[in-house]
Amino acid sequence: MAGSFTHGMGEMRRTEPRLATAIRDVLSHPGSLVRAVTAYLIGIEMGLPEQAARAVGCGIEYLHTASLVFDDLPAMDDARTRRGVTCIHVSHGEPVAMLAALALINRGYAMIWQGIRHAAPSNRELAGEWVDARLGVHGVIGGQAHDLSGWRGEQDAAEVSEVAARKTADLLRLTLVLPAIIGRGTPREVRLLDRLAMLRGLAYQAADDIKDVVCPDVTSGKTSGRDEELGRPNLVAAEGLSAALRRLHRLSAAGDRVQAALPGSSSRWGMLDSLRVSAPSLLSAMPAAV
């Protein structure tokens, strides 16, 4: 991923040194890359040229990584660690961190367009609209704005889930659906992938809310307990740990049913298995005392 970024930006030695170092640092801890790999494999399955599928996967991952940099800033979650290491605004300062995130966004959009341009004209228009809807003021950005609205006091689980649908699930909807739109995905495949992405995204956010409450930093890989401290939406705060775990189980089971309904054999859609978050796998990561 770092290689494709530096290739697109030109030689990194021509980049301002502090910015170049910050970009290298954030890209040297890429996390699971599950969105990038999934988008790439769906793209290949949908008949995209390998270069186009790779561009879409990397572009989505750059956008995701940039969102984490912004999410961790003092003005947002004021986190200290991410992916088990110090956040770049802590190690490089807030101005450089913001510029690094903007550079990732710029590169992310450029790479996504590299993939979109291979689509038929009608699909290119639809793909552009899909990107705007998933990432804009009614998608990820809007979800983050609602996340910052101020949630101290009693929370409603339905409202918390609505924020998760925008903040978390919409990026996953981009991951699963965009390669199908610009490839040869049928309307039914697009519809089912969209539904699956929503369910998996909601399940992921439910698991993240639970981990924020019960898992220490060393287990979760990022600063924990920020939702309660900052008054952010959290399912455990809204309905309790037991109910949040039950919700996670229901979302996971519903996602399994949608995935099973996708046309073709289960092996055709094996790339989707890594998106599944279940209550047992989450509980195994929790401290024994929980």
Could you explain how this protein is built, in words?
It is a single chain. This protein has helices spanning 2-9, 17-27, 34-45, 50-72, 88-92, 94-116, 121-135, 140-147, 157-182, 187-214, 217-220, 226-230, 235-239, 241-260, 279-284, and strands at 81-82, 85-86. By secondary structure, the protein is an all-alpha fold. It has one domain (2-278): Farnesyl Diphosphate Synthase (Orthogonal Bundle). It has a two-stranded antiparallel ribbon with strand order 1-2. β1 and β2 (85-86) form a beta hairpin. α4 runs antiparallel to α9 and α8 (140-147) runs antiparallel to α9 (157-182). The radius of gyration is 19 Å and the shape is globular. The model is unreliable at 5-9 (pLDDT under 50).
The helix/strand order is HHHHEEHHHHHHHHHHH
Rg over CA atoms: 19 Å
Overall geometry comes to globular
Count of discrete domains: 1
Helix percentage range: 55-70%
CATH superfamily: Farnesyl Diphosphate Synthase
**pLDDT average, as an integer?**
88
Query: Helix/strand-derived class?
Result: mainly alpha
- Kindly report the spatial arrangement of strands forming the biggest sheet: 1-2
As residue ranges, the low-confidence spans are 5-9
CATH top level label: Mainly Alpha
CATH fold field value: Farnesyl Diphosphate Synthase
β-strand amount: under 5%
Kindly, what is the distance between the CA atoms of the first and last residues, rounded to a whole number of angstroms? 37 Å
